Amino acid sequence: MSASTESWLEKDLVAYRDWLVHRAAARIRLLYEPCYISAVISSGEGDRSAGDDPTLESAIGPLKDLLSAMDAAIGRLYAERGVAGVRPRFSMALIRLQHRGPMTVKELAGQIDVTHSAMSQTITAMRREGLVETSTGSDARTRTVALTDRGRALVPFLEAEWRATERAWAELEAELPYALTQVVDDITAALQRRSFLDRITQQLDRPPDGEDEPRRASGDQPRREHRA
Which residues face 136 on adjacent strands? Predict the structure, then answer.
């Protein structure tokens, strides 16, 4: 919980390029271990009448909606340009393979900064669309990933779209009274002063409104004083 959550805020927010999702949708959807933030990003609206269920409200929910909308816009661009079978999250991997040549799954995961498991799923999807091919690596335990002719032919468009998206983002940010890059810098500075783990711990140990004691895990027992 604490490690993946803190990593998201301190690492992914700094890389606001990846915040555009099509750069790192795999990171957003697959890298985070099961925790509060991953649940917010993947959950639906749910049953609004379900009592005091805390998962029905989230300050991060609007970010999920924004990321989804931007990701969908890039997907629509692909469809309009006749780029079938390519998901926005494929672009970084395909571009890196073009510039760096064949890589193992582990190496490619390191390049994209996702887990080995997340990269394996992406590779499976790209291979199904005929964008990459895999072969046995230096030993039987590794796989080498390389572009197919189709994947290679798409890279110029993906690179052009990447640059266009960067320019579009810069244009959008110029319209904002408070730039996201400044938000990122401010959040990063705040987390350097006091980590997100410390902040969560303090909130968890603080009694919720209307309660005298902080919540305990189900297996915890309250301390009792022993009397003589």
Answer: 143
| Backbone dihedral angles phi then psi of residue 135, each to the nearest 5 degrees | -145, 165
pLDDT (tens digit, 9 = 90+) per residue, 187-213?
999 999 999 999 999 999 887 665 655
CATH second-level architecture of 2-45+58-205? Orthogonal Bundle (1.10)
Q: Which residues of 111-141 are buried (b: 16+ CB within 10 A; e: fewer)?
A: bbbbbeebbbebbebbeebebbbbeebeeee
Domain boundaries, the chain: 2-45+58-205
Predicted confidence (pLDDT) per residue in 144-159, tens digit: 999 999 999 999 999 9
Q: How far apart are CA 183 and CA 178, in angstroms?
A: 7
Buried b (16+ CB within 10 A) or exposed e, 185-214: eeeeeebeeeebeeeeeeeeeeeeeeeeee
Strand segments, DSSP code E, in the chain are 103-104, 132-136, 143-147
User: Do the beta carbons of residue 41 and residue 28 sit within 8 Å?
Assistant: yes
Question: Beta-carbon neighbour count of residue 105 at 10 Å?
Answer: 19
- Residue 21, judged by CB atoms within 10 A of its CB (0-12, 13-18, 19+), counts as buried
DSSP state of 78: H
**10 Å Cβ neighbour count for 146?**
14
Task: Say if CB 143 and CB 105 are below 8 A apart.
Answer: yes
